Structures are given as structure tokens and as C-alpha cells.
């Protein structure tokens, strides 16, 4: 029987293991930016990847269109029913928007947390091993993408940028298990209630909203939006809907389970929200402030 | 020109993996099923069995590194596991008959092993906290089904291409 471990191989293997551990610990640290060789590799591979993924998206787009055509009749019937309601709502929204801008003029306040410039981007790859919830977009620093910007689809918020290179950016989705991932959010209603999206329940496929003031009553079915107070995300991006409210581990604040509005499964075209107002590194970013040790769960 | 065909197929498979990854997770009656494409490593196992172990390990190291940097930002994980799997494959193949069915089964067993090692690794660093039963049900079984379909359909083509290249190399040593 030939020896699997000859001396030379054993040494090579040991050196390999040591090198591996060193590299892994290097890359697991919270790095602010990709190093230069990494950026070059990412850009080159990303370019090739977009060549492969664009035709695929075209083909899936054709299939989606056929699918949409097949449902047209039913959908049309349903939409007609809602059209009247929609026109009324639209008039109301227009009225409120104009009133809002008039009032803003009166008090001379121009900046709005809600304003953002959308940057259209295409998902060119999803991390194929799917342990980390990451996708890669075809827009990077040269297009104005910066770290921690919000990523949304037409349905709602899906994640934020964690790494940028000149021509690509890596997005970590909301469904991540990363404990340092948080988004400042609010419960909409008559009174806005603030909380932080922290964590994702893998079994229920729902997000967890924590640190809600326990004196304020919140209910199942209320909508959750980004609050804009985390420093980087614009205000008013839909995140999801409350499905269950309970108290947290210490009984001091409330927590709620949130069914995400956007679907994380099949992503193709997304928007990067570049907030027009000044950004600061708050809870949406890496600066988790003083409450870093509170995460008992 | 023909010299490039083996690395060229590897490049194509490397780029196809994330494209197939875009279709996953599949939502089957409320439960997610993760299909993880492992085309490249299966191809590399075939290279290591039918062509040359050292060449396979070189490609494995190179593509493993690209995979690490581009997709998962943990450098050293795939660039270690891919060559290791090629090494194990070339070691095991000395004791077994090199029939296509046997090598296909061997590749699939090694891919399952890779999935399991990765599961252990990601649980260790705390990126996932799913239980073993959930891992087997949601990830391992769908992944193995998808990859075995792929390999059954394309395994003979891999073998054909590699053998053609091997013959060519034997005929004109350069």
C-alpha cells in the first residue's frame, strides 16, 4: 500500500494548514475595504461573470414574460377592481405631496431623509455555496456606490453593500446570520415607533425587530420601514410586516417578527439607494455604538 | 488551440456555478431547498482521475482562490479544500476500477464530503446555526440530486474530452 503521507507531503500539508488558518483569520476580521489584489481579482472575475449572467437573465426574462402573459386575464380582472380605489388614493397622495412641499417651503427646509438617488444595478452572481447570504452587483465605486448603502427591489429593502471594488459591489442580504448586521427601522402607524432589525429567524424565514419601546402598543399587520436614523439608509423604504409581537429575552423591550416584503430568492435587477442627505456612520454602518455587548441571544 | 480546452471548460464551469446559484434557493411548498452547484470540483476530480493529478491540483488551487476572493471573502477555504479533494480522489482511484460509473459515484461522495466539511466550518465560525437534520434535508439532499443529474448527463463528455486531450498529448510529446 502506498503511503498517503510521505514526509514531503506531510510537511506540505502542515504548511498548507498553517497558511490556511492564517489566511482565514486574516479575512474573517472586519475589514473596511478589500485589499488591492482582491479588488483586481474581483473586478476581472466580475467582468467575466457579467458576460455569463446577462444572457441567462435575458432567457429567464423571456420565461417570466410568458408566465406573465398566461396570467394576464385573471390579473386584469383583479386590477380593474382595484383601479377605482387606486385613483382615489393617487389623488390623495398628490394632494399630500404638494401640501408637504408647500409646508417645507414655508419653514424653509430643503433636505429630506426620504430623498435618494437610485442607481440601477444587475445581480451578476449569487454566492454559489449559499452559506453566506451574499450577491454581487455590476456597479461599483466608479458608479458612486459606497459601503453600507441600502439595496432595494420594487417590493422593498433586501440588504446593504458590504464591500466595494471599482466595478463590482458585494451585498449582504437581510436574511444573513451575521450578528453585526443591523438596520434602523420603524413601525409605521399613527405614531412612529423605532427599533432595530437584528437577526433573521431561519426556521420562520422572518426578520427580528428588537429594542422596541415596551410602553408602545404595536400590532400584527403593521408595516415596517427603514427609519433613516441609522445614518446611511434613506427613510421610508418598506421592509416588511409584523407577524408576531413578543417581549425580548430580558423583558425590558419588545421584539417583533417581521415577514420581509421583498423576496430574497430570485434576485435580478435591484436599486442601490444613494441618500442625498449627508450620511453618518450610525447603526446602519459598522459603528454599533455602545450596545455591542448587549447581544446575549 | 486544443491545449486550452481543459482549462477553458474549467473557466466556463466556474462562471456557470453562480449563474445556477441565482435559481436557488427553490421555494417548494414553503420550505427552501438549496441547490448548490459543484460543477467545477466534479470536473477537477475527473481531471485528477483521468488526466494528471498535479495539473488538477494546480487548477484546483487557482480556481479555489478565485472562488474565495470573489464570492465568500474568506481566503484559504476553497483554495485549500479543492486541491485536497483532488488529492484524495487521485489517491482513492489507485484502489478502484476506473469505470465511469465508479468515478461518478466517487465524485459525488467527495462532493457530499465537501458539503459536510463546509457545513462544519461555517457552524464553527458562527455564520450558520442550522441543525444537522435541517442541513441534510434542506441542503445536502437537494444539492446531491442536482449535482448527480449534472454529472450523469455530462460525465461522459468530461471523460471524452480529457481522453482526447490525453491521446493527443501522448501522440505528440512537446
Largest sheet of chain B: 2 strands, antiparallel
- What's the Cα radius of gyration of chain A? 23 Å
Proportion in helices of chain B: over 70%
Structural class of chain B: mainly alpha
| Count of domains of chain B | 1
List the total number of helices of chain A: 3
| Uncertain spans of chain B | none
Strand order of the largest sheet of chain A: 1-2-5-4-3-12
* H/E element order of chain A: HHHEEEEEEEEEEEE
- Cα-atom radius of gyration of chain B: 17 Å
Name the average pLDDT of chain A: 81
Bulk shape of chain A: globular
Find the biggest chain interface.
A-B, 49 and 42 residues
Structural class assignment of chain A: alpha+beta
Broad CATH class of chain B: Mainly Alpha
| Spatial sequence of strands, sheet with the most strands of chain B | 1-2
Structural commentary:
The complex is a heterodimer of chains A (297) and B (174). Chain A is of the alpha+beta class. In chain A, 31% of the residues lie in helices and 28% in strands. Chain A has three helices and twelve strands; from the N terminus they run αααββββββββββββ. In chain A, 34% of the residues are buried. The model of chain A is unreliable at 288-297 (pLDDT under 50). Chain B has 174 residues and is mainly alpha-helical. Chain B has one domain (2-171): Arp2/3 complex 21 kDa subunit ARPC3 (Orthogonal Bundle), CATH 1.10.1760. Chain B has helices spanning 5-21, 39-50, 53-72, 78-92, 100-124, 132-171; strands at residues 26-28, 31-33. In chain B, strands 1-2 form a two-stranded antiparallel ribbon. In chain B, strand 1 and strand 2 form a beta hairpin. Chain B is globular.
Amino acid at each position: 500500500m502506498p503511503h498517503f503521507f510521505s514526509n514531503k507531503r506531510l510537511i506540505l500539508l502542515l504548511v498548507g494548514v498553517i497558511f490556511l488558518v492564517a489566511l482565514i483569520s486574516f479575512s474573517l476580521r472586519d475589514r473596511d475595504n478589500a485589499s488591492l489584489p482582491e479588488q483586481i481579482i474581483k473586478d476581472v472575475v466580475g467582468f467575466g461573470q457579467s458576460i455569463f449572467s446577462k444572457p441567462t437573465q435575458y432567457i429567464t426574462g423571456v420565461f417570466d414574460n410568458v408566465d406573465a402573459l398566461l396570467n394576464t386575464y385573471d390579473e386584469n380582472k383583479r386590477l380593474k377592481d382595484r383601479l377605482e380605489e387606486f385613483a382615489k388614493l393617487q389623488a390623495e397622495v398628490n394632494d399630500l405631496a404638494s401640501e408637504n412641499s408647500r409646508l417645507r417651503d414655508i419653514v424653509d427646509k430643503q433636505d429630506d431623509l426620504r430623498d435618494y438617488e437610485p442607481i440601477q444595478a444587475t445581480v451578476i452572481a449569487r454566492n454559489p455555496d449559499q452559506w453566506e447570504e451574499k450577491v454581487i452587483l455590476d456597479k461599483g465605486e466608479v458608479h458612486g456606490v459606497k459601503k453600507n448603502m441600502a439595496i432595494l427591489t420594487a417590493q422593498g429593502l433586501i440588504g446593504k453593500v458590504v464591500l466595494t471594488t471599482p466595478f463590482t459591489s458585494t451585498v449582504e442580504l437581510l436574511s444573513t446570520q451575521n450578528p453585526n448586521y443591523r438596520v434602523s427601522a420603524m413601525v409605521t402607524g399613527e405614531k412612529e415607533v423605532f427599533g432595530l432589525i437584528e437577526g433573521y429567524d431561519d426556521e420562520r424565514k422572518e426578520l427580528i425587530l428588537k429594542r422596541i419601546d415596551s410602553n408602545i402598543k404595536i400590532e400584527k399587520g403593521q408595516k415596517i420601514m427603514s427609519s433613516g436614523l441609522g445614518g446611511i439608509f434613506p427613510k421610508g423604504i418598506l421592509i416588511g410586516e409584523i407577524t408576531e409581537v413578543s417581549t425580548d429575552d430580558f423583558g425590558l423591550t419588545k421584539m417583533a417578527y417581521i415577514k420581509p416584503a421583498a423576496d430574497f430568492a430570485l434576485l435580478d435587477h435591484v436599486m442601490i439607494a444613494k441618500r442625498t442627505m449627508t450620511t453618518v456612520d450610525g447603526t446602519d454602518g459598522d459603528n454599533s455604538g455602545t450596545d455591542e455587548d448587549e447581544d446575549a441571544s | 488551440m486544443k491545449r486550452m480546452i481543459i482549462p477553458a471548460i474549467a473557466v466556463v464551469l466556474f462562471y456557470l456555478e453562480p449563474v445556477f446559484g441565482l435559481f436557488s434557493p427553490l421555494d417548494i411548498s414553503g420550505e427552501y431547498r438549496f441547490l448548490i452547484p459543484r460543477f467545477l470540483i466534479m470536473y477537477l476530480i475527473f481531471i485528477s482521475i483521468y488526466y494528471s493529478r498535479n495539473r488538477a491540483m494546480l487548477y484546483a488551487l487557482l480556481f479555489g482562490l478565485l472562488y474565495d476572493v470573489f464570492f465568500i471573502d474568506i481566503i484559504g477555504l476553497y483554495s485549500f479544500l479543492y486541491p485536497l479533494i483532488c488529492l484524495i480522489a487521485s489517491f482513492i482511484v489507485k484502489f478502484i476500477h476506473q469505470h465511469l460509473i465508479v468515478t461518478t459515484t466517487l465524485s459525488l461522495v467527495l462532493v457530499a464530503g465537501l458539503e459536510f466539511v463546509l457545513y462544519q466550518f461555517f457552524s464553527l465560525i458562527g455564520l450558520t446555526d442550522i441543525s444537522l437534520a435541517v442541513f441534510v434535508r434542506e441542503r445536502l439532499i437537494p444539492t446531491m440530486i442536482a449535482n448527480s443529474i449534472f454529472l450523469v448527463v455530462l460525465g461522459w463528455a468530461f471523460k471524452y474530452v480529457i481522453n482526447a486531450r490525453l491521446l493527443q498529448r501522448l501522440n505528440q510529446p512537446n
